[in-house]
Amino acid sequence: MLSRILYTKPSITEREVAYATDAAANGWGERCYDYIHRFEAAFRAHLGVKHAIATSSCTGALHLGLAALGVGVGDEVILADTNWIASVAPITYLGAAPVFVDVKPDSWCVDPAKVEAAITPRTKAILAVHIYGNLCDLDALLDIGRRHGLPVIEDAAEAMGSVWHGARAGSLGAFGAFSFHGTKTVTTGEGGMFVTNDDALYERVLTLSNHGRARGQTKQFWPDEVGFKYKMSNIQAAFGCAQMERIDDLIARKRTVFAAYRDRLGGLNGLALNPEPAGTLNGYWMPTAVFAPGTGVTRERLQAAFAAENIDARVFFWPLSSLPPFEAKPENTVSYDLPGRAINLPSYHDLTDTEIERVCEVVRAEMGHKA
């Protein structure tokens, strides 16, 4: 039987094990935050931002940041319909309404023209989610935000290693949020990071993230308000420190895996892979193949073909508005059309050329089989 090809898995070395072991054995008492502070410092330096707060998830980072911006009941936050539910969930936690707009057919990210058309007096923020490593058009979105007095937030959960005209993804918005889930380029098992260059926003999130206890409060166990508990553990942060010491290699390997797919599949008519516009770098967290309607290739057929070859198949995100908690918006035609003819391709640090070729053989076979 053919060996299993997973769609993704983390890269773990002796360094991660050693740091996590040290945190477990010694990271208590006065050292209980050592690895957390070290991880935050390493992340700040890598991203080129002033502030970073380690969290238990990207969802938590988004929740904290949105709350700090004052998003609440009666407000609207605009975001792409093509997304995972983790991006929209914090909006609903705060009692605000998500406004789903369509995506661009080439980047699969939010369409700035659709964003601007959706702005109302109730709009409180724009959430730009970088999908699969692909970057939103940040110049256009930031311009819209400036003209309408709206903060642009970057959900960079999937954009580690992506760069927008010299600035790393997550560093340009009012704040950025990152994920360190076990599937991500950098992992702490579970975890996230809030980042910003705004001093006041940082202090607000720092207070909210510590059960509402302000940094300057001298009374012990004295919260000034009800906050949140989205802290990362010292052991997780130790893992993250080891990953950050390998960050260049982890990002480079993602780009190498994608290049191998591009070399093998890029010339096929009717197939589009993750784009990399001029002046940008794509971190290629999740290589994705989108098939033209005329090819007859469908999600279901791809899933069956991959399963037959013992290869994990990861489907393209469903439109959020198509999910049970939300009202359908079939007018978002691109978001509704893409998932039925797209698939994520396996990508991880230890994926071999032989395994990549096995994946590509399935894709090529499906491309040659008309429905």
UniProtKB/TrEMBL annotation:
N6-(pyridoxal phosphate)lysine: residues bearing it: K184
Keywords: Pyridoxal phosphate
Gene Ontology MF: a single term: transaminase activity
Gene: rfbE
Protein name: Perosamine synthetase
Membrane spanning residue stretches: none
Pfam families: DegT_DnrJ_EryC1 (PF01041)
A GO BP annotation: polysaccharide biosynthetic process
SUPFAM superfamilies: PLP-dependent transferases
Active-site residues, Swiss-Prot/TrEMBL: K184 (proton acceptor)
Family: Belongs to the DegT/DnrJ/EryC1 family.
InterPro entries assigned to the protein according to its UniProt record, in alphabetical order: DegT/StrS_aminotransferase (IPR000653), PyrdxlP-dep_Trfase (IPR015424), PyrdxlP-dep_Trfase_major (IPR015421), PyrdxlP-dep_Trfase_small (IPR015422)
The organism's place on the tree of life at top rank: Bacteria
Keyword Secreted: no
Zinc-finger listed as a keyword: no
Entry-linked Gene3D superfamilies: Aspartate Aminotransferase, domain 1 (3.90.1150.10), Type I PLP-dependent aspartate aminotransferase-like (Major domain) (3.40.640.10)
